[in-house]
Amino acid sequence: MSHQHTPAHLINSAQFQRWLHRLHRQKALLRVLFFVITFAYWELMLHLILFKDWHGLLYPLLMAVFMGAVAGLITTGCRPKTNMILSWIILSVRFMLLMVYLIFWQVFKTAFSFSLIIGGSEGANALTQFNNLVFSAIHKNIWAIILFAIPLIIFLIFCIRNPKFRYLRPAMTMKWATAMILLMLLFTVSVNKANDDSYSPQSLYSNQWVKDLSLRKLGFDLTAFSDFKYALFPSLVPQSNFVAYTMPEISTPSDKMVNIVDVVTAYPNLDSEEASTLYFGDNVRDIDFASLAENEENADYQWLNQYMASASPTTKNEYTGLFKDYNVILITAESFSPWAVDEKLTPTLYKMVHTGFVMNNFYIPAFNNTSDGEYMVCTGLIPNGQGNHSFQDTADNDMALCFGNILGPLGYSTNAYHPHTYTFYERDQTHPNMGYTYKGYGNGLDVTYQWPESDLEMMEKSMDDYINNEHFHAYYMTVSGHMDYTFTDNSMSKKNQALVADMDADEQMKAYVACQIELDRALEYMIQRLEDAGVADKTVIALAPDHYPYAMEELLSNTIGAEAVKWYGLYKSNMILWSASMKEPVQVNKVCSSIDIVPTLCNLLGLNYDSRLYSGQDILSDSPGLMVFANKSFITDYLIYDTVTGETKALTNASLPANYLSTMQNVVDAKWTADGKILTSDYYRYLKEKLGTDALVTK
Q1: Is the dihedral of CA 594, 598, 599, 604 positive or negative?
Q2: Which residues, 6+ apart, have CB-to-CB distance to 319 below 8 Å?
Q3: CB burial class (10 A; 0-12, 13-18, 19+) of residue 141?
Q4: CA geometry: angle 309, 315, 318, nearest 5 deg
Q5: Which letter does DSSP use for residue 482 in this model?
Q6: Is the peptide bond prior to 484 cis by the omega test (within 30 degrees of 0)?
Q7: What does the alpha-carbon distance between residue 474 and residue 470 come to, in Å, rounded to a whole number?
């Protein structure tokens, strides 16, 4: 019998070995294909879960395919064991990052940023604070997490059945690398051709970086890579070139945004001679920004000087100086919203919201967290939109235009308080730098340690510090309204549970209102102390939320409607601007947001300030209203513009100029870039060094 056809001979034959090698090679190629499909599947899942539509999926999917091919090839170039280890590392790391982005967005409605954990501990501290909410979000999204885990389960089965991870020959690797390069070129060309507006994929890809918009339009991979790079090297963030603009004229002057109440009616103590001094000029200082720009070599300072020279200042008006020499209490209220205002349950909040200056179109944009909300209230600037927490970056800057530094030199005592841990978000560094004597839990404010702490107790243990001073300014960051909104995990909700027992509302809403009752009681105590000291009618109180109440989106969507939430509902809120001296309310219909608070107070106090140095504006001036979201969507007095879809929603019947939308896009881009440069270049310090210590604000 011939040995040519024995099984052993067949196994050792060259033909069989070539077939076996092709099979192994195909397995390597199948592994590359598995990575491509997995990355594309994950991108598709993330997009649909976060954004709940198919809009803008082309470029994220193209990039996911490219990155999947790269990852697959990486796992085919080494020994089998190394290939397997690399495969698991790549898949596991990407899966975990996707879960972080998924849960972070579900909690905060903004993209995760590596700046939270790079360059400081405040971000990690903030994340650990939300353990309960994170676990709740994981529980609510458990099926989504299981769907994301399917590729890992498939890959585990594959590894058990095929433990040897073969590699590709160099020639085959080169073929796949060439295919990937062509895919990347296709991506680049298609993106560059899609230059349809200021927030197109092309613009996001090459000219500007908007974290939330990038996740939506360019996908997870480019967003995560760019965010990591910019967190490590903030100076690399692309910024817009300076473009001078002129605000468009609106052809409906009758559509007035501020309903003026007669000055003498609102302020009976103001005589006609005093009133006559209110109507002149712009709120500007004698600063020649154009000359500064011409003689400046530093690119950032030159850009900012050009911007300031072209910016339109706000005008003085019938409210200029009406709170001259008043005491000032400024409050950032944790998660305050219209749903916290009830005539019976929160009567003080109700009174303050519906009297004083009544802001009917006040919005609170959600950037990253409480710290960014506080930054807007205190500085009048848009946070650095790259995901970095702007407040912490101010610790070494000259914050000359924050109220502690403005009013301190004018003879005011300046104090700041927060009832939670005093080092949280590095407030022990940022708040003294704003000109305050700062106290928090563990640093002189001896409140009961619980979660969350009591705003009422904070007031009770702080007002003696300043109430008897001739002039005082106090800043408060409250905490009682903090999530979770349950009667088990929230000490303030539990404390006030009996007061909301008869509410006809969901249990979560009851818990939310219950914890906001503590803020109401704190304000009631504050006003009573001011009245007892005889200074209530010489004190102005301004209050705004840091953000909408997180974790209540689903409930609020059912309450006000999904479409309203999509467009604006979550962000429309209440602002308090109130003094006991006001006899009648002033209705204000102009669109405004938290960055407008500081310049508005500057005007009301009659300070000699330059309105161009704030991104916000005096709400009571005749300047058109504007508020900007974290993805550069914006609302004006006339429309809402969504950068994701390019859609607009008209708010009035006004006849708008043809260039209105494009002009407002330029305005938003300019403000966004200017505020980032003001922060990163320490611009106010530069101006004081150039112009003198008293160049920015005086009495």
Answers
A1: positive
A2: 263, 278, 586, 603, 604, 620
A3: middle
A4: 170
A5: P
A6: yes
A7: 13
Kindly list the strands in the beta sheet with 539-545, ordered across the sheet, starting from the edge strand earlier in the chain.
437-441, 413-421, 472-477, 327-333, 539-545, 576-579, 357-359, 586-588
**Cβ of 539: how many Cβ atoms within 10 Å?**
24
- pTM for this prediction: 0.84
**Residue the block writes with tokens 């594309």:** 40
The DSSP secondary-structure symbol of 481 reads: T
Burial class (CB in 10 A: 0-12, 13-18, 19+), 198: buried
Q: Ranked by mean pLDDT, which of 68-77, 182-191, 499-508 comes out on top? A: 499-508
Output b/e per residue, 74-83; b: 16+ Cβ within 10 A: bbbeeeeeeb
pLDDT digit string (tens) for 283-297?
999 999 999 999 999
Amino acid, res. 410 = L
Q: Does residue 164 have a pLDDT over 70?
A: no
Instruction: Please give the pLDDT value at position 119.
Output: 55
Angle separating helix axes 80-108 and 142-161, nearest 10 degrees: 180
- Confidence category of residue 450, pLDDT binned at 50, 70, 90: very high
| Cα Rg of the chain, angstroms | 29
Contacting residues for 405 by C-beta, under 8 A, at least 6 apart: 399, 434, 435
Cis peptide before 452 (omega within 30 of 0): yes
Structure tokens at 411: 């003879």
H or E element that contains 390? helix 390-393
Query: How confident is the model over 116-159, as pLDDT tens digits?
Result: 776 554 555 555 556 666 777 788 889 999 999 999 998 888 77
CA neighbours closer than 13 Å in the CB half-sphere of residue 73: 19
What span, in angstroms and rounded, lies between the C-alpha atoms of 380 and 189?
Answer: 40
pLDDT digits (tens, 9 = 90+) for 232-266: 877 777 665 555 555 555 544 333 333 333 333 34
Q: Up-side HSE of residue 318: CA atoms within 13 Å toward CB?
A: 15
Count how many residues are written for the chain. Answer: 699
